[in-house]
Specification:
single chain, alpha+beta, three-stranded antiparallel sheet, 24 helices, four-stranded mixed sheet, 4 domains
Length: about 600
């Protein structure tokens, strides 16, 4: 059972929005920060019979169950304590939806002694939390877990008559982890996870959520961290954030601000009802901009891009009826294997998404996108890609506004993959629904942490520091890693430069220091072979050697308006999970996977 609470003083509308938010978000932030170690972090773990007066309710060595708390505990609880650290409070308030400004922590010697007396890492009574020596460390995963657990008692006791029971985390439950996060990293990760959830909200709820954050003074931090969030519709989120920021300052939006928002909403192709929500929220009427400002002056430019195509010749697309594994057997977790045909489970998922399967799979088409062929995609994706193409033709298509010229300028050099009749990796791929594409397949492979030894070697030699891949990296972080890989493999064609680089290394901790050019070249070749194998590019080693793993420019990644698979390593992949029917299907996929996991549990 998760604890969710509505902030006091909210309007009825804000409370409703917050309830929806908390139903999805309660402690997902903390759980993500420490992964599996934080599972069930905020499950209420009050000792049996803990409600009531300030007594210790659980049997412990040297104490009697239900006996009174020691005098040392009462003395600590009478002390003023101090507020939560700012970073820890931010994470906690985002997770619980509570104001923890009244919470006081006790970390002095008296608190430590009292915790030791009752053999606890920490204990809570009302808004007071006392910690044993060294246990208050909210910027480590273990410390965040412990604090979150104690805050769950604060929330629960606040809702109980006379809620002043002493609840404790016993010493026999280990929480120690080694990874330490800075306060800034904790907050940034919290914002990133929260933005992923808010990304799926209807515009009305998104605006109300950001407005509540503006009122609480937390929106500016969220805005500052928007670029750290991957797999989200940044333009849409930024529009809602800016609208909430404008409204939160207490003065009406200016004409220039409204005009800017209208232009951005039209450029993003926000549906008219969402544009109207934003304008109504700001008290600026409900009339959206009909056309992006860039196209209004088309008649005065040398050439104008053609209007985006919205109708297509359609055909039917059939998925495989051969069963594939949708749940893997896992004896440790008590799961049996479940196999189903893609044609069957995709149809069920569409029904769960409120869509008709027959209609969906009879609405496939093939198009040209920025000069490249795209075969077998749903018309929803085709419509979106044609609108994107028109914008890229305007910005990158030269004087003729030619989509193919824009494609060349953006580095597209290979046919674009669309639908698949059966999954090649994960069973639940958006490719099955015709809502995903693979761009520049050969030069943008699926990468992952399995190649981190290669990345480490490349980092040390190319830039003098250890580099690693991890999920959720931003474009700029991936680009830095990619450039190091390019430089590293490039030394194979320039032994003289390799020797000069090795001779210039002064850092004694650099593993390349003292190596000969011959030995280094041998290691680099081994790493190229390893990377090509792991990335399934053994027949395209030269492409990897010269171009690394990322050939798509940032303009393309940001401008295509789709969810980019690079957040989990699939560099070539873009899909529609972040908008329209794709968002509904992605949500239904999650529900279907959960249903299958439950079915797979063996008795």
């Amino acid at each position: 059972r998760r604890i969710a609470a509505t902030p006091q003083g909210s309007t009825a509308r804000q409370r409703l929005v917050r309830e929806k938010e908390l139903a999805r978000l309660t402690l997902s932030v903390a759980r993500d920060l420490a992964q599996e170690e934080l599972d069930a972090t905020v499950q209420p773990k009050l000792e049996p019979g803990a409600a009531g007066d300030a007594s210790l309710q659980r049997s412990m060595a040297g104490s009697v169950a239900g006996g009174p708390a020691p005098a040392a505990v009462h003395a600590v609880l009478r002390a003023p304590g101090r507020p939560l650290d700012a970073g820890a409070r931010t994470v906690a308030e985002l997770s619980f939806g509570r104001d923890f400004g009244h919470v006081r922590v006790h970390t002095d010697a008296a608190a430590a002694r009292s915790a030791e007396q009752i053999r606890a890492r920490a204990y809570t009574s009302g808004p007071h939390i006392a910690f044993a020596s060294g246990q208050y460390a909210p910027h480590t995963p273990a410390g965040l877990r412990l604090l979150s657990h104690e805050l769950s008692h604060v929330v629960q006791q606040a809702g109980q008559p006379g809620g002043s029971a002493v609840a404790r985390w016993p010493w026999d439950e280990p929480v120690t982890l080694k990874k330490v996060l800075s306060p800034a990293a904790v907050q940034r990760n919290a914002h990133r996870e929260l933005l992923k959830q808010i990304n799926g909200y209807p515009m009305k709820d998104m605006l109300a959520t950001f407005a509540a954050m503006a009122s609480a003074g937390t929106l500016d931090g969220m805005i500052a961290d928007i670029d750290a969030a991957e797999g989200v519709d940044r333009p849409r989120l930024k529009i809602a954030m800016d609208a909430a920021r404008i409204k939160g300052r207490g003065t009406p939006a200016t004409e220039a601000e409204i005009s800017d928002l209208k232009t951005r909403m039209a450029a993003r192709e926000l549906p008219a009802d969402q544009q109207a929500e934003v304008l109504s929220f700001l008290g600026a009427g409900t009339q959206p901009a009909a056309v992006p400002a860039a196209t209004e002056a088309a008649s005065t430019t040398p050439a104008a891009a053609a209007a985006p195509q919205t109708s297509f010749k359609t055909s039917s697309y059939a998925l495989s009826k051969t069963p594939v594994t949708v749940v893997k057997e896992n004896k440790d977790e008590g799961l049996k294997e479940i196999r189903e045909a893609p044609a069957d489970y995709a149809a069920r998922i569409l029904v769960m998404a409120g869509l008709d399967s027959a209609t969906w799979f009879s609405s496939f088409t093939s198009i040209k996108f920025l000069g490249q062929s795209v075969a077998n995609i749903h018309t929803d994706l085709a419509t979106h890609l044609k609108a994107v193409e028109a914008r890229f033709a305007e910005s990158h298509g030269g004087p003729s506004k030619d989509p193919a010229v824009a494609g060349t300028a953006l580095g597209l050099n290979q046919g674009i993959g669309g639908a698949r009749e059966a999954p090649t990796g994960t069973a639940f791929s958006m490719h099955l629904f015709g809502l995903a594409i693979d761009v520049n397949y050969t030069s943008n492979p699926w990468v992952g942490a399995s190649a981190n030894k290669v990345f480490a070697n490349a980092g040390w030699l190319a830039v003098g520091k250890k580099l690693q891949y991890s999920g959720g990296m931003s474009y700029d972080q991936l680009s830095e890693l990619d450039k190091a890989v390019e430089t590293y493999f490039g030394y194979l064609d320039n032994i003289e430069a390799l020797g000069a680089r090795l001779a210039a290394i002064e850092d004694a901790s650099n593993p390349w220091k003292g190596k000969s050019a011959e030995a280094a070249a041998k290691q680099i070749q081994q790493d190229l072979d390893t990377a090509a194998t792991k990335w399934e590019r053994t027949g395209a080693k030269d492409v990897i050697k010269k171009g690394g793993f990322l050939s798509l420019p940032k303009d393309f990644v940001d401008g295509i308006g789709l969810s980019w698979g690079a957040s989990y390593g699939d560099i070539m992949h873009f899909d529609m999970r972040n908008k329209g029917s794709g968002r509904k299907i992605q949500s239904a996929i999650g529900a279907y996977k959960k249903k299958k996991q439950e079915e797979a549990k063996t008795e």
